[in-house]
Design a protein that fits this description.
The complex is a heterotrimer of chains A (about 750), B (about 475) and C (about 160).
Chain A lengths: L15 H6 L14 E7 L5 E8 L9 E3 L24 E2 L5 E7 L5 H6 L1 E7 L6 H5 L11 E9 L2 H7 L2 E9 L11 E7 L3 E6 L4 H12 L6 E5 L12 H16 L3 E4 L2 H7 L6 E9 L5 E11 L7 H10 L9 E9 L14 H19 L3 H6 L21 H11 L2 H11 L5 E14 L5 H5 L2 E6 L5 E4 L9 H13 L6 E3 L18 H22 L9 H15 L2 E6 L8 E2 L4 E2 L4 E14 L4 E12 L6 H21 L4 E2 L2 E2 L18 E6 L16 H4 L1 H13 L5 E2 L3 H14 L11
Parallel strand pairs in A: 1-12, 8-28, 10-11, 14-15, 18-19, 24-27
Antiparallel strand pairs in A: 1-5, 2-4, 2-6, 3-5, 7-15, 8-13, 9-10, 9-12, 13-14, 16-23, 17-18, 17-20, 21-22, 23-24, 25-26
Helix pairs in contact in A: 5-6, 8-9, 9-19, 14-15, 17-19
Chain B lengths: L8 E3 L4 H10 L5 E3 L5 H6 L7 E4 L9 E3 L3 E5 L4 H6 L1 H6 L1 H9 L3 H4 L4 H7 L7 H6 L3 E6 L2 E6 L4 E3 L2 E2 L6 E8 L6 E7 L10 E10 L2 E10 L6 E2 L1 H7 L6 H14 L10 H22 L8 H8 L2 H8 L6 H9 L6 H13 L3 H9 L15 H10 L1 H4 L3 H18 L12 H11 L4 H24 L2
Helix pairs in contact in B: 9-10, 10-11, 13-14, 15-21, 16-21, 19-20
Chain C lengths: L10 E7 L2 E7 L5 H8 L18 E4 L2 E4 L12 E3 L12 H9 L8 H14 L5 H7 L11 H12 L5
Parallel strand pairs in C: 1-5
Antiparallel strand pairs in C: 1-2, 3-4, 3-5
Helix pairs in contact in C: 2-5
Classes of the chains: A alpha+beta (about 750), B alpha+beta (about 475), C alpha+beta (about 160).
Chain lengths: ~750, ~475, ~160
Amino acid sequence: MKNHPIVGASVPRMEGRGKVTGQACYVDDMTLPGMLFGATVRSGIPRGKIKRINFDPGINWNEFVIVTCRDIPGANCIALIEDDQPCLADGSVNHPEEPILLLAHPDRHLLPKAVEAVSIEYVPLPAVFNIEESESLSQIIWGADNLFKSYLIEKGDVDIAWRTADHIVEAEYSTGAQEQLYIENNGMIAVFDSQQGLTVWGSLQCPYYVHKALMKLFALPADRVRVVQMETGGAFGGKEEYPSMIAAHAALLAKKSGKPVKIIYDRMEDMAATTKRHPSRTRIRAAVSKDGKLIAGEIDFTLDGGAYKTLSPVVLSRGAIHAGGAYFWPSARIRARAIATNAPPHGAFRGFGAPQSLFALERHMDRIAQVVGLSPVEIRRRNLLRPGQTTITGQIIREQIDLPKLLDRALNLSSYHAKKETFAKTNPSGCIKKGIGIAAFLHGAGFTGAGETYLGSVVGLEACADGRVRILVSSTEFGQGTNTVLCQIAAEALGLRYEDVSIARPDTRQVPNSGPTVASRTVMVVGKLVQSAAAGIKKTLEASAMLGESYSPEEFRAACSAYVAQHGQFRSFAHYQQPDDVVWDEEKYRGSAYAAFAWAVYVAEVSVDLTTYSITVDDFVAFQEVGKVLHPVLAAGQIIGGIAQAIGFALYEKVVWNQGRMQNGQMTNYIMPTSADLSAIRVYFEELGNVHGAYGAKGIGELPMDGPAPAIVNAIEDALRVPFNSIPLLPEDIFAALAASARTDEAFPAARGER
Amino acid sequence: MRSHPVDYELVAHGTLPAVLSLLAREPGAWLPIAGGTDVMVQFAAGKLPARKLVSIWNLPELRRFDVTPDEIQIGAGCTYTDLRQNECVFREFPLLSRAARWTGGIANQNRGTIGGNIVNASPAADSLPALLVYEADLLLISSHGERRLPYANFHLDYRRTQLAPDELIRAVCLKRHFSTYLPYARKVGARNAQAIAKVCLAALGRFSAGRVEDVRLALGSVAPVPLRLLETERFLKGKQIDPHCIHAAKLIVAAEIRPISDIRSTAQYRTAVAANLVAEFLGQLRALSAPGEKKNIRLEKWNAERAEDAAQSILPCCGSKAWARGMTARRPILDEASLLAASDDVWNALSESDWLEAFRSHPRIGESHPPAHASTQSAAWSGEEQGKAALAEEAVRLALAEANRAYERRFHRTFIVCASGISASEILAILLRRLQNEDSTELREAAGQQRKIAQIRLKKWLSS
Amino acid sequence: MTQSSLPRPKSEISLTVNGKPETVHAYPMERLLDVLRNELGLTGTKEGCGEGECGSCSVLIDDTLVNSCLVPVLQASGTCIVTIEGLASDGNLQSLQQAFLDCGGAQCGICTPGMILAAHHLLIKSPQPSLEEIREGLSGNLCRCTGYAQIIEAVAEAARRGAAA
């Protein structure tokens, strides 16, 4: 037996050494002999028909490989949920930057000029650029009514409540687009061989998503398409679905040229052309009793999906389910809609709909508190879910979670009450106004409802000749610690040392489909399958009498080695089984939406400087219950990193749109925080376990994205006594609101604008 | 990367005369490139019109400082890092020193040059307002000779300057007569580092007999060129600064500037913030010259000391060497309010180990022997602060000693509390409450107390 | 082959990289970043933005931290360059690299080479930096994964372990 547990310890990052020595190999670090470089010619208009494509005679086009939609062997679509998104435009375009044709050349430097030398004549059509314009149906730009998807979630009888409520509190909130801004831009290398088929290497989260899309595009069977993940420099959802598009492009050029082709976006292209977080608009109407209890809620949650359906239905689903937050709503009605606009399709980004709906809800709780005459603390205390109560989808909270106690701990750690008292005294005379704000929330881990069953994840564990074991999953590492944590789990489950476990590179030829690396599911769902697969290996060795009930790592390795010598390399596979107590009705959208929720209370302390109207987060306390912390350093890193991105979402990151095109697609103009902008973020964990997760863990990757924005805006309202209902909230917006409220002496209305 | 390097010629002749004769032979054909922090960005974006470039990076004739009793000549090839490291610039031209600190990050400061900043002529450039208020002269050189031009005349219009096609800036000349002015510099960007200014103000002011004797104000990002606010200055000269005057000045500022709305900000915001910055500056000027307040000799002396000595002399106020270094780096500090604010800022940014170092310099509360390594001054102050505690009744003293020991067992360090003016039993109550704190909460509470102690000690230090 | 008038010749540019003398054949306006990665095969230095904002391309030129995407290779002629590949020696990690591993300073790793160079540069100039000095020293290097906290801890830890080169 080993001396100390591996799960729960901060073991060295599996692939860390390569990262700190510059040896880690990202897609642009790889070169293949005879490789060409590819580039994309994109639409310059938001919507219209392509009349003619002109090639400027100043370029020697014979040297270039040129691919259009005519070169697509299979279906011209990027297969995802619906097949409405073309790989290359065929006669018409529906958003700026839509790909129209592809070029390749051996000299990377010649491509930008060549792209410029392709001029396209269009017949423009009227376009729509925001939720209101799309809803008005003045232009139908998708389907029959611009509607990608809608959901209706109902609990109890909402309509009675309006007649009897002591208070009805109504408001509208909005959030803007946000760029994932992984520091490594999207990139792919493709090779097409008439015998072997198609191979792509790239920066990606979901090898089997790319695999599925390429099969359809090329009309190839599964064993003639191979997708390999390279070291990936950040993803955050931005490389969940988009890589299928760039992989398709590289592959088409590779097929046409007969040579390897590499496409690497530069920052401006990546920002302008790839997915962003869905802009949102949420309208909440809440019926509240005079002692501050929620009675009923009607929530209208709308997402701007961009020009094609892509993942909007799933983002909408999660946003809608999280719209009720961590509170008990006796009755509720949630109408959720994802609609089309002529912008590049919006897509997955950490949180995936929940940051949007939870921003609105947590702001609304503070508003309710004001109307009822209670504090932001008290309004939450009275409404937080308790074990035995149900969420808005009717999911019973079975775990013994004490949310009011979580709230108290967070308040204590942040010195909330003392600070509130101090600020009340110092604010009247200060030029720097200080405030403190709270957000209480939850995040469901894993795919919604029957999603995990639909995925049918498979995990393999391979026993090797040297007695070590190797994990076979399609789950990718992109900084969050997949490799490390899955190896910890396998080592712990088998009684091995951490060093005795390795994990295979996600290569569709080598690993089974353990599902996409999204939805905070890797540690919880895939990790649990790793545990099961490990049990399978153990059983096999025990059954062949090579291993006793208790053994040392050395003994395991000897047994494993001996078994392999006798029987050959062997693998144990585990297949996902939906737990019996997680039952979901897809039609009525009711039941247990997620196998587990992580819970959190965040407290933000801010200063607003009235000289410059700029906002600083002076202190941030993040307290969360996460089942079990499998790796303290990695877990803290996930929380802090997510909070930093959410601070960006709230205060810094504004996408400036002009006719559906991002105008500020450079690091100098799209502002993310530097080390000089973020002060102490203090992270604390509570662990209640989770029967459905490996070693009791719940997913935590996305949780930290949900709370900071509303906590910060709540704090800003606390400081300034002016409400803000829209993010990103920039100094210019603070100034405009204060100026308006000084003029009119009334609260500033909800800010609108192109988002 | 959207340009093809094959399309560009770059030559590096290595000496200034060689560069100048190239520019004279083909005026307007060659674009000088120094550190490249502007030119290479345009190049990578495929937006560099010039095809022939001549390197002026690291030319010894351009990258030098010449200091005479009357003026300093800063070579145009000096980088922002060079500016930050130059003692004369740091001491006498703090507006320029601060602007250098704000520009980009360290890597860009190591390559960006003052000459490049001037010639690139962006109205948002960080160092240009400082040059305006210091009334800099430029030395422009060509193969025909050198001419001296007031910097105020250099910018003609948006990105159009007086620089002739065969000329380079050789140096920026600053007269060394500004040390009696109050300096004020503030940049407002989208974030604290690596930000293009939305507004920035550089100002100098001098008071005499209760009135503004001289004032200079220059703003960036509020006009097509960096702008000296001559009308606002005219208004302010000779005035007493009171709220009415400040309000009127703000209105003149708003009328004098011509900001635009662009991808970074709005005209209204820029106008409001520009006026606010001027008001903030005027407030500081007024505070310095409030009737009856004399200049603080202690502070003046400390500002002029060598860095090591300055750190040593302020150390007893806190006990953390990192704090002392941080305070020293913020000189010159001109008044008590700024000193106390700086102390808080520096203290809050320290690491845990620095905090612990500060805690260790105190004796246990209620005892009379400071730790051996605490300075004499620190020990004397500890004695004064703990005065009341020392006079407590026997029972309370015993309880205090016991509680102190419990605290040390729990938290592995001395209990820190700002004891000035509170009794021993009050201290005991606080100690007992804090014994219940979680580790991280207690650390922050102790740090908060130490911060207060530093404030009290700084006030004493100022009058010592 | 190009479409412009005459194909310009490349230059021979000599420089020292990670202690080794090198001569590269490059156009003078090629970015030092591209020469390091493509001519010399030193792919540890990364391109994140191409505009000198993210710091992923940070290297040392004559002990001075610079963004290599903004340096035309001609200006690096005759200089000594240090890239991330030049920090570990004989397979032994520098204590700064080890501290990054121990404290969680590297997540996806793409900003890490530049971040380590910037930290290395800071610790040479200031072997016992305060938190404020560390924040300032790294403020030109963007990280999207970590929120900087564990990077700053790593640098502080390396300073405690005595990391000056």
